[in-house]
Each structure stands twice: as structure tokens, then as C-alpha cells.
UniProtKB/TrEMBL annotation:
This is Lipoprotein. It comes from the Bacteria.
Length: 130
């Protein structure tokens, strides 16, 4: 008397589902589930999500940042004044957070008593990333 070898319990659809679940679980455990975006849209403007800070300089209406993107291109952003105050950020790769803010109008030419304002997209916060 000859016995048939036991066939696997899983059907091809179940096997695919299990394989997908295993890949997803591996991605979550290893931290590679999702890559951060390179660009984002804020206030209708396209902005870099991260960059290495080359220089920060206080100006009349904002802190002015010079940064380098991961692809090597340099770009500038206006930022909250507090960011200029932290010199330890220079040379670090930063995750950039943006918000639309009111600032002293350009036509005021630095006169804080001018009473006019403009709305611009500012880097409102940064976080050092590896």
C-alpha cells in the first residue's frame, strides 16, 4: 500500500498573502517601512523636507538659511529667528518643518513700526537627523 505525500495546506493565494505579511513585518522591524519625502508642498510652494545647514544669518524679517539637499544642490529658506540662535546646527543634516507666518512687510525696510506684514512660508522648526 502506497501513501501520497502530504500536500501543503496553503493555496497559492494564501502563500502570497503570507509572503506579503512577512515582507511587511520585516520592513517594520528593520525600520525601512517608508522613506521620508524629498519635497513637500506648503502654502502652495514646493519645499525641501531636509537639508544640511551650511549657514544661518539673521535678517530684517526672518532668519536666512543656506542649505544643501541630499543630491548636492544648494537652496535657501527663510526661518524663524530662533533657528539662527542655535549655532550648533551648522553642518548638521536637518529635517525641516514649515508653517505660513506673518512677517514684517518687505516695503517696511526693517522699520518695526511700519504696521504692515506679509505672509510667507517659514521653516518653523528643525530636528537633527542622521
Amino acid at each position: 500500500m502506497q501513501h501520497d505525500k502530504a500536500k501543503p495546506f496553503q493555496t497559492p493565494a494564501i502563500a502570497r498573502r503570507c509572503a506579503c505579511t512577512l515582507v511587511f513585518a520585516f520592513a517594520v522591524v528593520t525600520g525601512c517601512a517608508a522613506k521620508e519625502p524629498d519635497m513637500l508642498t506648503v502654502g502652495g510652494e514646493s519645499k525641501h523636507a531636509a537639508g544640511t545647514l551650511l549657514e544661518a544669518q539673521a535678517g530684517d524679517i526672518a532668519c536666512y538659511l543656506s542649505l544643501k539637499a541630499d543630491d548636492g544642490t544648494e537652496f535657501q529658506e527663510s526661518a524663524a529667528f530662533e533657528i539662527c540662535e542655535d549655532a550648533s546646527l551648522v553642518g548638521k543634516r536637518l529635517k525641516l518643518s514649515y508653517s505660513v507666518e506673518n512677517v514684517l512687510a518687505a516695503e517696511c525696510e526693517g522699520d518695526v513700526d511700519c504696521g504692515k506684514s506679509d505672509q510667507i512660508v517659514l521653516v518653523s522648526a528643525v530636528r537633527v537627523i542622521e
